[in-house]
């Protein structure tokens, strides 16, 4: 994959390249490297998706892929650039996103459920993994409430709300328990649930701070720009020498993902999940928005699906900490979290 990335970057400098193609777990991704000033438009007609690029050199080619989702693509010169026509196979859907640094267009084509061939059958429900942080021998942050307890309560409430909307929910823990006495193993077992058989993964935590701080913040995986966020990741990753080791491992993954275009596409969807979740929770609770950030949290380091870590508030804040101890406020947190997840599932980031 690193070699492919290097080739794409080199060709991008020349103007416009053949797309990079990757396949995994029932999907095919085509990644087009774009010059900075290029424009594009996309139209679907039948089983063909046409992408017209302007501000790129003209191309003329025909490529047979024959993946389970894409038969192939062809390109021909058009005014100001080229038009690529991607031929999809029957029973597929697609979505697109634009990435930067370097600039790329990603076309993701996925096999639709086999239920499409059986009109009376229902499509499978999306599967959401909720991970109440800590638990058992690890209480997490302690203030007016205990992090592990409030995270579990909010997760259980969110589970009921999502199930009422037809969403299947998997919990990493359903009571005050740990998955392993080893913190590294515990986090690894949770992380393993963010696999391609599920739709998305949300890890639920609560904050604590030496100085007065309050509000909700949401993270998706990546390098920490702020040193304080790196310190936070070390703490959530087990603290001490273990937290430093697991954080270093996670940072290594983050650096490798920079050269993995398919992983970068997934991180873009994680960012959208983070934004939608934060907006809904702030709207529902009236809490301070602390924004969306990236950090090398071990529990979401290898997610193959959109994955975020939500900090629902500060347990030691004199006002917010006491709110976190009330049933009414936890219900609003759960309402917001469920609403954000539903919005993401129903948005343009979901299969169409």
TrEMBL record:
GO terms for biological process: peptidoglycan catabolic process. It comes from Meiothermus ruber. GO terms for cellular component: outer membrane-bounded periplasmic space. One of its GO terms (molecular function) is N-acetylmuramoyl-L-alanine amidase activity. This is N-acetylmuramoyl-L-alanine amidase. Keywords: Hydrolase, Signal. It comes from the Bacteria. Residues 1-22 form the signal peptide. The keyword Signal applies.
